Every structure is written in structure tokens, then in C-alpha cells.
């Protein structure tokens, strides 16, 4: 592992059997400590980095989660929460001296209310399973990450996940109404509820996207939406990525907000077509999939307008889906693009940054220059509508130095995103992957304020340490005042 992680406490490691026994007293049938059985948990979706956990515990109830966290808090043991392990930023990377708290067994749909249009689920319910639970009544859950068949709602909350339809319907934060959460010391709290607006500070907005640093989510209340009356997609091919990028900018500039707008460059398009046989044109440099939904007449008008914009930008392919089967086929290649790109190289490094849409063409061209500079291929698959890039850097981990080159290439891409007015991440989170790049976007004051929030929720800094912050300061260093026997330091100073 080339990333520095928190120092390992040798005393904790030496105490493994006693720790496992303590956890087994809380979750009798859900503790894993044998080395071979820990292997599946040594990494998440960022497979370049691996580290077996000290021990794994798999609770089934909120009470068990509470008791596990309270026990670890008393014993001073670090805890790393984990959903399905699909994180692409190393957010669930374990620690050698930490307990991995897996939530996959908490996988029940607790309640569905079609009148209020909400569903209440445990964190281990998969994203796609929420839609599966409500589609019979004509509803669905809007956020749809490409990993939705496997990724879980708890992990979606941790990373503020998106998906191809987040352009119109929002990310996880726009579709979560409330959570039940267990704090580091075992206290159970509730934030939000079933209402669209909650009173007071927006603590729920703080928790969504907090990457497991503030607490462990054990229940989620999500919005469900009526299935659109009509959904149709148009497949557009362009001779250059600049033409495709300019087309994206004009579609949004015309005031059209598609349900989804995704782009793939030539390497990604060829890989997806070979993998899925979706009928993609292979003579284009960039492929754009644009979907609209709503009443049929509205969809017809929007598709006609989009086709006209694409033609003005030199589109050589323009094909509108004629039925639901064809629409799903258009999307099948995009949904399978990440695994499909695995055919191009032994390994790939998936990045995640967001830029202003108007800079899309420029960034893609500069990315091609970086590809030549580093001597590594790159395939681009991304949410074009909101400027969320997912460059896939191709490399071979068996070749000495290639992983390091891929990391440097990826870091340059993310620095470029910030340089053009964007941000380090769109939906994958910071984790360990972007942790050391945080100063590129935030100054010391910004980071200190973020860490004060961490201290408010987790003063002992035991939840998911080593993630997000390039240097995690002790809470005392950030201004927490020590009161000894009721006496504050410098009592003569005025305090407000």
C-alpha cells in the first residue's frame, strides 16, 4: 500500500482474540477472525489497496450496532463501517487494528407508504431492491449508481451516491428524508423523518456524504417517485469529443433538463459494445445518451429539439428509441461500461471529479495530453449533464511503477478539475483516494472547521480514521478546552 494510514496499535492487534470474544458476546453468530475468512473484506471497490481488518463483526439489529460501538468506545478500538464494499474511493478500506463493522445483514425493507411516497429500509438493502419493492405499485427510487444491483442504501448515504438519473432527480441527499444513526459511543439518534422539510439545523444534510466519519446509519427513509408516464432515449454519435461536449453544454443552456445525459469516448464505446452488443456506432469518437421522461407529447418535443442541437454540432449518428426494449438496450452498454473496460487492460483506476459543463471539451482534450505524457491509456465514461467525470486509467499492476504512474495521472486529473472551477469528487467520496488532495481545494482553515464537526460527533476519532482528512488533528489541537475540576484556563479572560 502506497497510502499512509494511521499508526497501528500493536497492543490492540495482540489482543485480537479477546476483542473477537467481546464482540461475539454481542453478536454470537456474526464475528469473523480467521485470516482466510477475512480476505473478502481486505479491500473495497478501490482494489489497488488492500489491508485485512483486525476482525469483522456483522450485526443484524440497531441494538447490536449500538452495543458493538459502545463496547469498542470503552475499549478504545477503531471501527470502520462497511456496506457492500463497492466504494471506489477506499472509503471502506479496513485497518489492521480496527473492527470492520459490516451492515450487509441489515437488509430488510421495513415500511412502504405510497400515500406519503416514502420507504423505510435498513442500510443493507441494495439500491435496486428499493425500486424492486415498490415498482409493482408504479413507483421507483430515483438514484441509480451503475453498481445499483450490489451497492447498498447505507453506503449510498455515506458517499452521497448519484447515478445516470441524478441530473434531473438529484443525488442521494435529495432523496433521503431521514436516518436512524448510532454515534461512536453507542447512542442512537434520529435525524429528519418522513417530511420534506425538517425543523432546525440541517444535520441530515451533514450526515449524507459524511463517509462513515460521524456515525453508523442503521435505518433510512427515502423518497419514492411515481414511474414516469413515458421515458425515451436518443443515441448520438459525434466525430470529436469537443463536438459532443459542446452539444451537452447547449442542451443545458437551452433550459432542457434531461432525466439522464451520459457520455462515453471511443475506447469506452468499443469496450461496451463488445461486452453488451447494445448496437452502438463504432465510427464515432464520442457517444452521447440522452433520456427524457414525462408525458409523451413533451418527450416528442424535447427529443426533436435535442436532435436538432446535436445535428448543429455535427452528430453523425442520431437514433431515438422506438420502444422500451430499445431504450433499455441503449442504457445496457453504459451501465456495463465499467466492467467492459476491464477487457482493455489488466487493471484500471477509476477517478471521480466534477467540472463546469462549459469546460468539458477543454478538460477532455487536456486529459488526452496527460494520457500521452504518462504513457497510459484512459477511457472516459461519465455523467455529462452535471459534469461528473469518471476517467478510467488503464494500467498493469504487475508492471513495476505502473500503479504509481496511474496514481499520479489521476491526481493530475483531479487537480485540473479544481483548477477549472470544479471539485475533487462528484459521488464516489474522498476516502483514501483523494484524501491527500484535499488541500488542493480547501485551505487549513476550511479543513480545521470540517474536523471540528468530526470532533463534535466522534471526539475520540475512532470512526473510520485515515479517511478524508490528509492530517487528522486531535480535537484538543482544534480548540477544545480542557476543564479541570471546574476551572478553565485563564479565568480572567472574557468569554462569549
TrEMBL record:
InterPro entries: FAD-bd_oxidored_4_C, FAD-bd_PCMH, FAD-bd_PCMH-like_sf, FAD-bd_PCMH_sub2, FAD-linked_Oxase-like_C, FAD-linked_OxidoTrans_Type4, Oxid_FAD_bind_N, Vanillyl_alc_oxidase_C-sub2. Signal peptide: none annotated. Its cofactor is FAD. Coiled coil: none annotated. Keywords: FAD, Flavoprotein, Oxidoreductase. PANTHER family: GLYCOLATE OXIDASE SUBUNIT GLCD. This is Lactate dehydrogenase. One of its GO terms (molecular function) is oxidoreductase activity. Residues 49-227 form the FAD-binding PCMH-type domain. PROSITE patterns: FAD_PCMH (PS51387).
Amino acid at each position: 500500500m502506497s497510502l499512509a494510514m494511521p499508526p497501528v496499535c500493536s497492543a490492540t492487534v495482540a489482543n485480537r482474540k479477546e476483542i473477537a470474544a467481546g464482540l461475539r458476546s454481542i453478536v454470537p453468530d456474526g464475528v469473523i477472525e480467521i485470516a482466510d475468512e477475512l480476505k473478502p473484506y481486505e479491500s473495497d471497490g478501490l482494489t489497488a489497496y488492500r489491508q485485512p481488518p483486525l476482525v469483522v463483526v456483522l450485526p443484524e439489529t440497531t441494538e447490536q450496532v449500538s452495543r458493538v460501538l459502545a463496547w469498542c468506545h470503552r475499549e478504545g478500538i477503531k471501527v470502520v463501517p462497511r456496506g457492500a464494499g463497492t466504494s471506489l474511493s477506499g472509503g471502506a478500506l479496513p485497518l489492521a487494528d480496527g473492527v470492520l463493522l459490516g451492515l450487509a445483514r441489515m437488509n430488510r425493507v421495513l415500511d412502504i407508504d405510497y400515500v406519503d411516497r416514502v420507504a423505510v429500509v435498513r442500510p443493507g438493502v441494495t439500491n435496486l431492491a428499493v425500486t424492486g419493492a415498490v415498482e409493482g405499485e408504479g413507483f421507483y427510487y430515483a438514484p441509480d449508481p451503475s453498481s445499483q444491483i450490489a451497492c447498498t442504501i447505507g453506503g449510498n448515504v455515506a458517499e452521497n451516491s448519484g447515478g445516470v438519473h441524478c441530473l434531473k432527480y438529484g443525488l442521494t441527499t435529495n432523496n433521503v428524508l431521514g436516518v436512524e444513526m448510532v454515534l461512536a459511543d453507542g447512542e442512537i439518534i434520529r435525524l429528519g423523518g418522513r417530511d420534506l422539510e425538517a425543523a432546525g439545523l440541517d444535520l441530515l444534510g451533514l450526515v449524507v456524504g459524511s463517509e462513515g466519519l460521524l456515525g453508523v446509519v442503521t435505518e433510512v427513509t427515502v423518497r419514492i417517485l411515481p414511474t414516469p408516464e413515458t421515458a425515451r432515449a436518443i443515441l448520438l454519435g459525434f466525430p470529436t469529443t469537443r463536438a459532443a461536449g459542446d452539444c451537452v453544454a447547449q442542451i443545458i443552456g437551452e433550459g432542457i433538463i434531461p432525466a439522464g445525459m451520459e457520455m462515453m469516448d471511443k475506447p469506452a464505446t468499443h469496450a461496451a459494445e463488445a461486452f453488451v452488443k447494445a448496437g452502438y456506432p463504432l465510427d464515432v469518437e464520442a457517444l452521447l445518451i440522452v433520456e427524457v421522461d414525462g408525458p409523451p407529447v413533451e418527450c416528442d418535443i424535447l427529443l426533436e429539439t435535442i436532435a436538432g442541437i446535436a445535428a448543429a454540432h455535427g452528430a453523425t449518428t442520431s437514433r431515438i428509441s422506438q420502444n422500451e426494449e430499445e431504450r433499455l438496450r441503449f442504457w445496457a452498454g453504459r451501465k456495463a461500461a465499467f466492467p467492459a473496460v476491464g477487457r482493455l487492460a489488466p487493471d484500471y483506476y477509476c477517478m471521480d471529479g466534477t467540472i463546469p459543463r462549459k469546460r468539458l471539451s477543454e478538460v477532455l482534450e487536456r486529459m488526452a495530453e496527460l494520457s500521452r505524457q504518462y504513457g497510459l491509456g484512459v477511457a472516459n465514461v461519465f455523467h455529462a449533464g452535471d459534469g461528473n467525470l469518471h476517467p478510467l486509467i488503464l494500467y498493469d499492476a504487475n508492471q513495476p511503477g505502473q500503479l504509481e504512474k496511474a496514481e499520479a495521472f489521476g491526481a493530475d486529473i483531479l487537480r485540473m478539475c479544481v483548477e477549472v472551477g470544479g471539485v475533487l469528487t462528484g459521488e464516489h467520496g474522498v476516502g483514501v483516494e483523494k484524501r491527500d488532495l484535499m488541500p488542493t481545494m480547501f485551505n487549513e482553515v476550511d479543513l480545521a472547521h470540517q474536523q471540528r464537526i468530526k470532533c463534535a460527533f466522534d471526539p475520540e476519532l475512532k470512526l473510520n480514521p485515515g479517511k478524508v482528512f490528509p492530517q487528522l488533528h486531535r480535537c484538543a489541537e482544534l480548540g477544545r478546552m480542557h476543564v479541570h475540576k471546574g476551572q478553565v484556563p485563564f479565568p480572567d479572560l472574557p468569554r462569549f
